[in-house]
Amino acid sequence: MSLKRLFEQVKAEDRAALIGYLPAGFPTVAESKDLLAAMVDGGCDLIEVGVPYSDPVMDGPTIQVAADTALRNGFRLRQTFDVVESVTGHGGRAVVMTYWNPVHHYGVDAFARDLAAAGGDGLITPDLVPDEAEEWLAVSETHGLDRIFLVAPSSSEERIDRTVKAASGFVYATAVMGVTGARDQVGAGAAELVRRTKAHTTLPVGVGIGVRSGEQAAEVAAFADAVIVGSAFVTAAEGGPGAVRALAEELAGGVRQKSGRATVAP
Amino acid sequence: MSEAGPVTKQRNPHDPDERGHFGPYGGRFMPEALIGALDELSAEYDKARLDPAFTEEFTRLLRDYANRPSLLTEAPRFAEHAGGARIFLKREDLNHTGSHKINNVLGQALLTKRMGKKRVIAETGAGQHGVATATACALMELDCTIYMGEVDTERQALNVARMKLLGAEVIPVKTGSRTLKDAINEALRDWVTNVADTHYLLGTAAGAHPFPVMVRNFHTVIGEEARRQILEQTGRLPDAVAACVGGGSNAIGIFHGFIDDPDVRLVGFEPGGHGIASGEHGATLSEGTPGVLHGARSYLLQDDDGQTIEAYSISAGLDYPGVGPEHAWLKDTGRAEYRSVTDDEAMDAFQLLSRTEGVIPAIESAHALAGALVLGRELGPDGLIVVNLSGRGDKDMDTAAKHFGYVEES
Ligand SMILES: Cc1ncc(COP(=O)(O)O)c(C=O)c1O
């Protein structure tokens, strides 16, 4: 699978991968394509294309407002695939991050088929745990898509084990207990969660929630295989593609630095 | 009251599977960060329901604090408008705090103590669940934060004041439709951040496992009492049991007293708002399709893209685009029927019960009363109906005064 190759390449360069998130259709479909292209150009190794959803319970105010804006501007679910195609067509790689109901409603098989056809690599599912994922486990095999599940500081060893066994591509470690949003400090528990996760799997582990600067990216890169940045890109999007590209470049520099200051004060 | 029924039983034939599935509904569609807390809650509840000390404490609180058993009152003058069928009211309005909500709240507050958690959060629509939760937290020395949609803080201002008096913090939710759905979203965001010391005391038989089965079991006391009382008072089982359905807790509680009596029809009444054709309603089971919201698969009001459609009802407690998963299953299996009642029909029944029986119902409960009037005419003079009068209407005076023009609108 292609995410596997991506992480092998990143590893060969002795650095962490940079994964950037923006919602599809934010603020409009056309503008979101330009913003995502800027993320690719600025050095994001993988793009998380978010699906705007009416009830984003894992998201803080920044991403809530962005999703709301996209929906108010008329975003339709099937446009997710256009947006993914614009990323892959621009030479980038994309996975889709989505709450489960839109996929459930579209049809899990149909969604996977259309995502694969658009060149997408997989799905990140913040409210679908492997326990409920039977259909998705089967369908993702059929269409050759990666299943990126989340682990959290509150996950037991047993749950981490079950999650990584069902996952492919990489494992998404939510660094702090809480909703998405840029933070001044990366959660001190992040390194510990990565360590616990790696004890159960050889899959790469990405760390998300809270990173907003090159310096923080370097801190996370010291212990994780990928640095995931969301809310900071949403905020940067206000400044248009130039600002998004500048943030991507700063973060791309960060993931190549590995500051070594792995554990920061809580 | 001699027994607390299914609370003491390990399994009952109507329980979901181990992972909380009622047929294809229910389950846990939740962030991984909350699965640990749900596992902890399931484990504690499974222990508690087998523990005689827990059952005894719960039963004692229901009796000595909440005023159970609640009365079953015949409503003959009201029934004159129902084709002559006999109508009995299960008086959950007479419970402490004024609705059925207190049953579930006392059960979960006891569990919170058992888990050693110090803080409780809850969502509320009409404010009845918020008031019940604030009450139990005052009684049991727990910190209490209530999330309430901004629209609802306005239409149920009296209950906001009650919660504050009881020592709770009330947070108005300004996102989305600013009603119950959004209050749940915000409570879930709080929970995922503070889960280590906080219990989310969900107020209806919906959400992720174990909430639907646990909340149901705390409310089955309604149905058990009602079945015993109707047999005592009339010597027979009713033809139909009527309840309003928001998330579905008062309905599932009374339905379960009769679920193994195949000749008793179980009829749930959903909010029809301005009428189904208007698109402004909350008739999830009647008009929705299967989907995932707030942690469970169930029926849902959603658009072609799976985005939640905002519900509408004059009644804050029924203004919700989802519904508990067991109701979805009861609908599909045909064991229960679901219909809708418009704002105007509910308000007419609200006034009618007040004027014929001297009982002011909650507007939520008035939906069940309006439904019973229709059922009565269908059943004819031999009919016998038990209506779950889930709450009292004091909180609704402002809405009623406006609806009936008792006050000048400013
Ligand atoms: C009096 C009363 N009845 C019914 C409801 C609806 O909830 P449920 O469907 O869970 O019984 C509420 C909710 O606030 C209520 O206050």
Helical fraction of chain A equals 40-55%
Q: How helical, in percent, are the residues of chain B?
A: 40-55%
User: Mean of the pLDDT scores of chain B?
Assistant: 95
Structural class of chain B, please? Answer: alpha/beta
Report the oligomer: heterodimer
Largest interface: A-B, 38 and 38 residues
- State mean pLDDT of chain A (0 to 100 scale): 94
Largest sheet of chain B: 6 strands, mixed
Shape of chain A: globular
The percentage of residues in β strands of chain A lies in 5-15%
Secondary structure tally: strands of chain A: 9
| Strand line-up of the largest beta sheet of chain B | 3-4-14-9-10-13
Helix/strand order of chain B, N-terminal first: EEHHEHEHEHEHHEHEHEHEHEEHEHHEH
Proportion of strand residues of chain B = 15-25%
Structural class of chain A: alpha/beta
Q: Looking across the biggest beta sheet of chain A, what order are the strands in?
A: 5-4-3-2-1-9-8-7-6
Characterize the biggest β-sheet of chain A.
Answer: 9 strands, parallel
Describe this structure in words.
The complex is a heterodimer of chains A (266) and B (410). Chain A is α/β, with parallel strands linked by helices. Chain A has helices at residues 2-12, 29-42, 61-72, 79-89, 100-106, 108-117, 134-143, 157-166, 190-198, 214-221, 231-236, 240-255, and strands at residues 17-23, 46-50, 94-97, 122-124, 146-148, 150-151, 171-174, 205-208, 226-229. Chain A has a 9-stranded parallel β-sheet. In chain A, helix 9 (190-198) links the parallel strand 7 and strand 8. In chain A, helix 2 (29-42) runs parallel beside helix 4 and helix 10 (214-221) runs parallel beside helix 12 (240-255). In chain B, strand 5, helix 5 (128-140) and strand 6 (143-149) form a beta-alpha-beta unit. In chain B, helix 9 packs across helix 10. The longest helix of chain B has 24 residues, at 211-234. Chain B is globular, with a radius of gyration of 19 Å. In chain B, 64% of the residues are buried. At the A-B interface, helix 5 and strand 6 of A face helix 1, helix 8 and strand 11 of B. Bound molecules: pyridoxal-5'-phosphate (PLP).
